[in-house]
Specification:
Catalyzes the first step in hexosamine metabolism, converting fructose-6P into glucosamine-6P using glutamine as a nitrogen source. With about 375 residues, this protein is an alpha/beta fold. The protein has helices spanning about 10-15, 15-25, 40, 45-50, 60-75, 85-90, 110-120, 135-140, 160-180, 185-205, 210-220, 235-250, 285-295, 310-315, 330-350; strands at about 30, 35, 50-55, 80-85, 100-105, 125-130, 145, 225-230, 250-255, 275-280, 300-305, 320. The strands form 3 sheets. The protein has a 5-stranded parallel β-sheet with strand order 4-3-5-6-7, with helices on both faces. Bound molecules: 5-amino-5-deoxy-1-O-phosphono-D-mannitol.
C-alpha cells in the first residue's frame, strides 16, 4: 500500500506531479484559455461582487490560504483576509452577505473549521469549500466547493494536500481575474500555460532528494532551525518550519526574511541552520542581503535557489537547486525540497514519520 516507499509521507511527496495533474484535469484548458470549475461558475457573481474573500483554515491548510491571499489579490484584485478558524469562530467577526468565505481542509472534518463555516453561514456569507475528502462534513456544510482530488493522504504531515490546495486556489484566482479583467491577456495565458507544466517542474524538483538527504545528515542533531522567505514564499517558510517540527520534533520557526532584524536575528550563531527560500524571481536582491546578514553572524545557510544561480551559491553553505517559475507559482516548487528535508531529518532521528507523537490526522475536537 506504500507503493514501495518506506513511509506514506515519502510516497505522498512523490505523488505530487500526478495529483496536481489530477487536480486541474478537465478544469484547466491552457490552449483555449479556459478554466472551468462548476462550483465557481455556478456562483461566479458571488465571487466577483464580493467585498472581500475571507479564508478560514488550520495548520497546513491555513498556510495554503496565505499563499492564496497573495495570488488572489495579485491576480483578481479582491481583498483577501486569512484567519485561523479557531480564532475566527470565537471573536464575533464582522461578516456580511457581501463576504465570500473559503474554507480549506484536507480532511473536511476539522472541528474549528467546521464551526467557522457554520458561523459564517449564520451571518449570511456565501461559503465555498476546498476539501480533499469527498463527502466529508465540510464539503457537505459549505454552499459550494471544489475538491482537490489528491487521493487519500495518510501521513499525518500534509504534503500533497498543500500543493493541490494551492493549485485549486490558483485556478480560482485566474478564473476571477479573467472575469474581472484584472490580468492582461498575455499574463493570463502565460499563467495558464505555466500551471499546466508545473507537474513537470515538481517532478524535476523531486531530484533534490539526494541533496536533501545529505543536508539532513549534517543538521539532524540541530535543536533549532529558522526558515525565511518573502512574498509568495513567506507562507512556504511557515510551512517548512511546521513540517520540520511536527515530524522531527526540532524547534523551527518560519519568518518573512525582512522581519529577521526585528528579533530572530538575535538567535543566529554557528549552531543555527537557516533555510532561506531565494528563487531568482521575486525579491531576490533583498533576500541576498538577508543571507549576507546571516553569514556575518556565522549562521549556517541552506538556500533554495533557481537552477544556475551563482550569487547565493557563493554565500550559502548548501544550495538546493529548483527549476525556474514565475514568482506567483513558485510555492508549488519551493515547498518540495523542504518536505524532503524534514522527511529525511525525521527518518535519521528515528521518528515515527507517518504518525508523529501527540498528533492526529484529522483534528475533530477543538
Ligand atoms: O484536514 P485539515 O486540512 O483541515 O487539517 C488541518 C491541520 O490539522 C493540518 O494541516 C495539520 O496542521 C497537519 N498535520 C500539517 O502537516
Amino acid at each position: 500500500e506504500k507503493g514501495g516507499y518506506e513511509h506514506f509521507m515519502l510516497k505522498e511527496i512523490y505523488e505530487q506531479p500526478n495529483v496536481i495533474k489530477d487536480t486541474y484535469r478537465g478544469r484547466l484548458l491552457a490552449n483555449t484559455g479556459i478554466i472551468q470549475m462548476s462550483g465557481v461558475e455556478d456562483n461566479i457573481e458571488k465571487f466577483t461582487n464580493a467585498d472581500r474573500i475571507l479564508i478560514v483554515a488550520c495548520g497546513t491548510s491555513w498556510h495554503a490560504g496565505l499563499v492564496a491571499e497573495y495570488i488572489i489579490e495579485e491576480f483578481s484584485r479582491i481583498p483577501v483576509e486569512v484567519e485561523y478558524a479557531s480564532e475566527f469562530r470565537y471573536r464575533n467577526p464582522i461578516i456580511t452577505s457581501k463576504d465570500v468565505v473559503i474554507a480549506i481542509s484536507q480532511s473536511g472534518e476539522t472541528a474549528d473549521t467546521l464551526a467557522a463555516i457554520k458561523l459564517a453561514k449564520e451571518k449570511g456569507a456565501f461559503v465555498f469549500g476546498v476539501c480533499n475528502v469527498v463527502g466529508s462534513s465540510i464539503s457537505r456544510e459549505t454552499h459550494a466547493g471544489a475538491y482537490t482530488h489528491a487521493g487519500p493522504e495518510i501521513g499525518v504531515a500534509s504534503t500533497k494536500a498543500f500543493t493541490t490546495q494551492i493549485t485549486v486556489l490558483t485556478m480560482i484566482a485566474l478564473r476571477l481575474a479573467k472575469v474581472k479583467g484584472t490580468l492582461s491577456n498575455s499574463d493570463y495565458f502565460r499563467y495558464l500555460q505555466e500551471l499546466e507544466i508545473i507537474p513537470e517542474k515538481v517532478l524535476e524538483a523531486l531530484n533534490t532528494n539526494d541533496i536533501a538527504k545529505e543536508i539532513a545528515e549534517k543538521f539532524k542533531d540541530s535543536q533549532n532551525c529558522l526558515y525565511l522567505g518573502r512574498g509568495y514564499n513567506f507562507p512556504v517558510a511557515l510551512e517548512g518550519a511546521l513540517k520540520l517540527k511536527e515530524i522531527s520534533y526540532i524547534h523551527a520557526e518560519g519568518y518573512p526574511a525582512a522581519e529577521m532584524k526585528h528579533g530572530p536575528i538575535a538567535l543566529i550563531d554557528e549552531k543555527m541552520p537557516v533555510i532561506v527560500i531565494a528563487p531568482k524571481q521575486g525579491h531576490y536582491d533583498k533576500v541576498v542581503s538577508n543571507i549576507q546578514e546571516i553569514k556575518s553572524r556565522s549562521g549556517k545557510i541552506i538556500a533554495v535557489v533557481t537552477k544556475g544561480d551563482t550569487q547565493v551559491k557563493e554565500l550559502a553553505d548548501y544550495v538546493i537547486e529548483i527549476p525556474e517559475t514565475s514568482d506567483a507559482l513558485s510555492p508549488l516548487i519551493t515547498t518540495i525540497p523542504l518536505q524532503l528535508l524534514s522527511y529525511y531529518i525525521a527518518v535519521l532521528r528515528g521518528c515515527n514519520v507517518d504518525q508523529p507523537r501527540n498528533l492526529a490526522k484529522s483534528v475533530t475536537v477543538e
